[in-house]
Fold:
Amino acid sequence: MNETIRLLQAHRSSRSYKSDPIPEEILDAIVESAHRAPTSVNSQQVSLIVVRNAASRARIAEIAGGQPWIAQAPVFIAVVADLYKTALGVEKGGAEQIVQRSLEAVISSVSDVGIMMATLMTAARAFGLGIVPIGGIRRDVRGMIDLLGLPRNTFPVAGVVLGYIDEEAPQKPRLPIESFRHEEKYRSEKLKSAIDAYDHTLVTYWKKIGRKDGLSWSANMAQYYSSYSRRIKAIAEEQGFTIEL
Amino acid sequence: MNETIRLLQAHRSSRSYKSDPIPEEILDAIVESAHRAPTSVNSQQVSLIVVRNAASRARIAEIAGGQPWIAQAPVFIAVVADLYKTALGVEKGGAEQIVQRSLEAVISSVSDVGIMMATLMTAARAFGLGIVPIGGIRRDVRGMIDLLGLPRNTFPVAGVVLGYIDEEAPQKPRLPIESFRHEEKYRSEKLKSAIDAYDHTLVTYWKKIGRKDGLSWSANMAQYYSSYSRRIKAIAEEQGFTIEL
Structure:
């Protein structure tokens, strides 16, 4: 099996970092890898904000609900849906950008953000760095907008922590593949047994790594997905993403 | 520079395929790579539908606005935001899932879809396959839901074409990196000159590869982003994604 496949299949998020800086040429190569990633209709509707300032990282750690690895690792890259940049192009092209008022714009730009995030993570791991994807910045979108100085028609979707790993994380098991991969059509019949098997696997895994507060996947999902954790629609609207149709 | 970085920086979408099938073990390794990719709060809120049936691929090519490479290449993988699966977990955990009614759920699941797409594309390219990311399935979301038999609380966000390349595509230039990478804060000052430079670069590129209808980036953006190309909010609502807050 080749190096890239091995790297992807060994994916894990490590949450323990040394403070060693990332050499400029490595950071450049990681960002340039993301810069080559595809975007919807070549819109290039994503921008990265590379945050190294310690006070800013401490603030982001706080915004994200207390995630110390954001302050500990030397680099945080915010990945921003950027329809401000595209609006300048539309204006130069003699028209007015209105696409940001549609759900389509949210979906196309946020999926492009995800593509960038994965590219950043894979590139960083190819250099032996650890990573943590951070959606927790959406706990305080306004705080992130202010911290990063983001203009209208942009939205800070997520970020990635990058640094040299102090203690490597184990690899967390996944739901059985039959709940992830379907052939030709979606098959729901196997889901319940897959979830039962995974709940058992995950609890066994938490015990094995000595984590006493670890929940089954179902209990975890019941905790997270039975409430509205984040009320971000009003801020998206203020930024220009009004989701009218 | 290592193999993975080289692969990422050489990214391109190829739109000319042989009909040769992809060996099962290669397709398995690609899907298993995506299966290991991270998701928000370990929700695993993404599912893949592997489509090899020729009639289905022809239908998807049509839905996507006439993209013949979808019918030509042997495999299309639909990447689906899947909060049906998580709802089963929440229910098993003794609660009711309501998160799908929030913008947060759209953003977290769609960014996870993007992460999966990039992982599929990188894994496929590591095996020497060509890829094309396809957002065009959102031209007829209902058509895709019916074709793939998708349940409530799911949404077909995008897909990836995979196959053996007949004719390799050249690599399309990107906007200058200063319009993509910012340090500490978003800097809008350099955007207009970056766009001017890129408009020139892209038109030169189109001429070089002999494409006579190639537009500048600004003209392209003016064409795509000055109208609502896709009205998908009503279908998202029907699926359960009501975006109430």
Remarks:
- The two ends of chain A are 46 Å apart (CA to CA).
